Amino acid sequence: MTRARNRELLALIPVALLLTAGFAAVFAQDHAKLGNLSLTYGAYFLAVCLATHIFLRFRLPHADPYLFPLMALLTAFGLVMIYRIDESLARNQANWFVFGLILFALTIYFLRDYEILERYRYIIATAGILLLLAPRLPGIGEEVNGAYLGVKLGPISFQPGEIAKLAIVVFLASYLRENREVLIVGARRVLGVTLPPLKHFGPMLVVWGAAMFMLIYIRDLGTSLMFFTAFLALLYVATGRFSFVVVGTIMFLLGAWFIFTTVPHVHERVENWLHPYHDALGNGFQVLQSTFAQADGGLFGKGFGQALLTVPGHPNLTMLPVAQTDTIYSLIVNELGLFGAVGLIATYLLITARGFKIALLANDGFSKLLATGLTAVFAIQAFVIIGGVSRVIPLTGVTLPFVSYGGSSIVANFVLLALLLLISDRARREAEEGVPRSGRDEALGAAA
Amino acid sequence: MAYDPLSTALKFGFLAVLFLFLLVIARSAYRDLRRTAAPAPDATGFHAVPVGVGEVQRGVDAWLVAERGGGLERDERFDLIGGLSIGRSKDADVQIDDRYASGIHARLFSREGLHFAEDMNSTNGTLLNGAPLDGEAELVDGDTLQIGDTVFRFEAS
């Protein structure tokens, strides 16, 4: 109830404090113009967060209290780091942050009955697929480092994949909500493995095919991996069959291996990951510099504003390529060390935990699956880029949610947050009013 | 670059506030988890429902006790905490070896301090105190539950 909102309010204060401290440290380092500019920025940030908080107090009084402060913390990380790289980029990012919050408020305002999404699922799915394909369309598509992720429409360029991820999760959640029973009931055991019934293998093959197609067509392993893993997470929650996940993972690995051997761009990405030293000053440069930067950070980091982005004395010789997007995580680790890295990852983990908690609390199947899917896709996105820059998996051009520079990423993730809070508000309100939990026949366990 | 005491202080201050903040949220999330540990009966019966640590022992007040059949030891006890699914399937919490049982035949769950049994559309049905169980029904201490040739007793304190 209001207690939840009070906790949210209390949690926003340390976030604003962190942003202020971050800016103060950057100023102290960069131009000794400490003054009270950092306080001003901190106050702006707090004001924007407070406005959002008051909106939530009225519209979603029961929603989860910590999701918004945690996401605000990520944004604060991003703003400080981007400011430290380039002042004008930070100004853009701050504008996107405000714009994202406006869209966040609009989503909450107009999508109070989010079940309506279920009714338009095929339209939503089509829109999502078109968005994913848009970067390959001649005239508006944009190729960055061999992958097709961006779209340029006149002066505006954006990454449609960020918005598509929401559309696809909504579609999968509503599709699986309706078809989960048949997936379980018809399952049979072959050689000790429970396989879904053959005729319902169809949807799984379609999603697998789509993931493979994306890999070939958009040439981005990260996006493909993100969507397919979110699908497997949803499938697991919907059916409770771990074997489906195993089968799906094997299918993905086989497909990815095949594409690795046939599509040159994907092959190159994997080669850069496995053998970066083969071309240390060319293709392997980014991932190598990124890992060096992280190692160089040590336990507590070099301090805000201390990382070397360019070779000293040579402003054109980059040390950490694309620091504002791909390698922003490495920059944070370089400046705040292992402790900063752990703090950042813990923030993502806590958000993920809150998200799954919302799914547990939710009463109906669609809400449960939607909350699971949104949380999963968010968490996997963070994993794909953090894993990429620390050489756990091949580096791909996915953004670090809420931290990386980029309008579409911020905006899409704020819509994602709005949906999670909408689900959370209803679930927690019903829990407080004591709505019988298993009363609805569409609840997930009802047809086992 | 020389060590600037101010920026060093700000860096450690930042990390300290960051960790305190995360700690408070983690603690609160953990307490939240325990408070709402009332198992969600509508979570799928296939996998264990997460229950807050420490909640498991304290809250146990109802058991399913095997009486005969099903390949179970006589008087084998199953805690009802988190709900129980009964069936022939490996995924069932109480796996019974009974050729009349369905994969997931029935389930038991608690809601607001009361306990219920529900037949999961099994092929051969479930008997509660000898009468067919239609949908869900409340359980009281001493009830018997029969699935095929397997008989259970329900105990509550």
Give a description of the structure.
The complex is a heterodimer of chains A (448) and B (157). Chain A is mainly alpha-helical. Chain A contains 15 helices and seven strands. Chain A has one domain (2-275, 320-447). Chain A has helices spanning 2-30, 37-59, 67-85, 87-110, 116-119, 121-133, 160-185, 201-217, 221-239, 242-262, 264-274, 285-297, 328-361, 365-389, 407-433; strands spanning 141-144, 147-153, 156-158, 188-190, 193-195, 310-311, 314-318. In chain A, a hairpin with a 2-residue loop joins strand 1 and strand 2. Chain B is α+β, with helices and mostly antiparallel strands and 157 residues long. Chain B is built from two helices and eleven strands, in the order ααβββββββββββ. Chain B has a six-stranded antiparallel β-sheet, with no helix packed on it. In chain B, strands 4-3-5-6-9 form a five-stranded mixed β-sheet, with no helix packed on it. In chain B, strand 10 and strand 11 form a beta hairpin. Residues 37-59 of chain B have low confidence and may be disordered.
